[in-house]
Amino acid sequence: MSRRPIVALENVTKRYGAIAALEAANFDLYPGEIHALVGENGAGKSTLCKLIAGVMPPTEGVLRIDDAPVAFSAPKDASRLGISMVFQETSLVPQLTVAQNMVLGRERAFNSVRKVRNTARQALQRLNFNVDASQLAGALSAAKRQMVEIARAVLNDARVIIFDEPTASLTPEETEHLFDLMKALRRRGVAMIFISHALEEALAHADRVTVLRNGRLMVTGPAADFDRAGLIRHMIGEDLAKRDPTAAARRPPPAAAPVLQVENLRMGAMVNNMSFSVFPGEITGIAGLIGSGRSEAARVVVGHTKRNFGGGRIWLNGREVRYGSPAEAIADGVAYVSEDRKLDGFFETLGVSENIGLGWLAKFGRRRWIAPAPTMRALAQEWRTRLSIRATGSDQPVLHLSGGNQQKVVIAKSLAQQPRLIIFDEPTRGVDVGAIAEIHTIIRDLARSGAGVVVISSYLPEILDLSDRILVAKSGTIAAEFVRSEATAEKVLQAAIH
Amino acid sequence: MTDATANAAVPMGRKARRSLLEPIVLGVALALIVLFSTTIPGFASLGNLSVILSNSTSLVILACGMAVVVISRGLDLSQIAAMVAGATTFSTLINAGLPAAAALALAVLAMALIGFVNGWLIAFVEIPAMLATLATAMFMTGLFRFGVLRGDYLLILPKSNPAVVFFKSDLLPGLTAPVALMIVALVVTGLVLRFSTTGRIIYGMGDNFQAARLSGLPVRNTIVFVYVYSALAALLAGLVIASASGTVDFRIVTNGSLLFEVILVVVLGGIPLRGGRGGVRNLLVGAALIAVLRNGMTLYDFSTQTQDMLKGVILMAAIFVDNYLNPRDAETDTAGDL
């Protein structure tokens, strides 16, 4: 292409702590082009978009708009240059009307209600969107909210529009309409980026496609040069695609009765008739995209959330159970290691010994009135050695530990309850490479000791590495099941995406 | 491993989580003592010291209950109402001729019930602590003033009743019953917080409620415990105040300054309202400042209004200093979604 790019990234890196979300990325976007970004969860697609939209600054590298280097300190700087982002979780203020949302941040000191409404109404009509401008944004459906965001971007004279999974909440007709609109905008010279997990969509509607993997841009090229299988190969990497599955196959699946049976579980909009079983002594991996209902199902099993009325049945060792609180589940030996250790995993200001001790007290403290520090410290010492948790002492606050050691503390907190069934949700998220291997060893040892182990992970290599049996969740249900010897990264990903 | 060397100087973890406010408040209290000793004749006398001590017994006992609630990330605004209600229950029963032991047992039951209602509303109905306790405070004040006192705000205690006499007597030479009860409250609170299973859970809940629940800890029962504990501390403080003054005075509830002082003691000592941190020592530091200040201001003959203004300024200064010393941690803002 001979034209000048409107957006150019040169060697851009974004780090969160020690972890690079995006590494040395070079990326161009030309006026009048639709550019699709594809990749697994955590590949760096959202990070790339947020950098362009000025949501956060890059750690290293240069971002150029119209050939001029820029340093955005807030999204409004980017929006002044005509860059708009349509977020996945829409960023409308629910208490304001559609019209008020569309002019939000660009109001004058005094605003005529009628003028604002007319501007908004015209903008919506020009795009052929059937949305009432005087309705409250909170009352709109997901698809209509998305429409308002797009109309807002167009109203702001955006030259670059970034869509973060725009079609995830749309019906097929609405999706079709959105792509027609994007093509109309393309004729007006607007450059568009869209993130999508629906590969066919990217191939059919984009001019160019970029594939990301683990924070690196793998390949960029005209959409016509790719097919679905080719994209998936780039998404998962050659080595993983070629890995011989039989080499990793271990023991045959145990013939024992299942520890856990879940049948037709339903919970809100997230879990839709999910059924699966977990057997003792084996690791059941649950793959799937974020939002496929895996964590939600796990949280229902452990009593954290309630299922719908009549929303399925759960058996533990053949006995039907319905836990009203995590405490009841843990009394039965069912533990859950949450996906966000900071949010609901550890106690940040408490020490290592108190964190592990609190887990232990939950199961064994029922008839125990006192829990003196020496007892808790001895317990912590034992687990620190067993899981090789590196801390300066049993009383070091968990917040000061590295991500890997924090995660090990959270795991120790659950293992101290001697669970018969343990569910790990993203057990190695934000953990350094060395600790990942150690945590994997811990998980394997647990299965070997006869416990039922479930690993929920969005990272395919982890699922393939650990699991004896792989379940693939999609839109709140289990879409496929593989024995380890039959599973390949390609098959799992094929089943997980639309 | 710079962390290791930094922490090596700190013997055990309790110090690592101590608020930076505590040493500052302690320093300010000591500075005030020096200031008052030099400017007020008779401030540094043994007699005045015992006045400071006996004047702060009920405050410290109340603060013991409040501290436990605050560490669990709650707040009990009904404490003073419970204190007066407890004293009223006890006084009415002994006025009616019940033996002191039976009256005490019934008062304990009544206060436990009040704490239970608070805890139940917060833990099971999931009403925010501030609203639930505000509502029960209003209810209790109204109920007791119109149901028991028939619209009056004063209740006179029989001065000769052995129970009343006991609560203001000297147990040992120099050790009055209120001071002894205050020490008992401090020791019990310290033991509960540091050694009991419930104490561990209180810290865990205050630090991260969701993590505590997901770890399978009995969080709801612990919330109920905390408010019952606070109500019982309130009863004890009520008995001490009523016996010392010979009356139960409902104006303590309505003028609100005692509740403010209790929260002041807790927060100034370095127990943050977000919970999970602090202990009895923090309580003592906060109480020391307030007690010395109260005494000094009275000796200076400041009006109540001036005293209130000064206390307000001190609270603002403390919050300001605390925010300055404990800025929001950039580490905790790390995005999870890459």
UniProtKB/TrEMBL annotation, chain A:
* Pfam families named among the record's database cross-references: ABC_tran
Q: Which InterPro entries match?
A: AAA+_ATPase, ABC_carbohydrate_import_ATPase, ABC_transporter-like_ATP-bd, ABC_transporter-like_CS, P-loop_NTPase
Q: Could you name the domain of life of the organism this protein comes from?
A: Bacteria
Q: Name one GO molecular function term.
A: ATP binding
Keywords attached to this Swiss-Prot or TrEMBL record, sorted alphabetically, are: ATP-binding, Nucleotide-binding, Repeat, Sugar transport, Transport
**Residues in ABC transporter domain copies:** 7-239, 235-495
The family this protein is said to belong to: Belongs to the ABC transporter superfamily.
* Protein name as catalogued: Simple sugar transport system ATP-binding protein
UniProtKB/TrEMBL annotation, chain B:
**One Gene Ontology CC term in the entry:** plasma membrane
Q: Which UniProt keywords apply?
A: Cell inner membrane, Cell membrane, Membrane, Transmembrane, Transmembrane helix, Transport
Cite the InterPro entries for this sequence. ABC_transp_permease
**What superkingdom does the record give?**
Bacteria
Localization terms from the record? Cell membrane
Membrane topology category: Multi-pass membrane protein
Q: Which ranges does the record mark as transmembrane?
A: 20-43, 49-70, 77-94, 100-122, 129-151, 171-193, 223-244, 250-271, 283-303
For this UniProt entry, what is the primary localization, expressed as one broad class?
A: membrane
* One annotated GO molecular function: transmembrane transporter activity
What is the protein name given in its UniProt record? Answer: Ribose transport system permease protein
What organism does the record attribute this protein to?
A: Roseiarcus fermentans
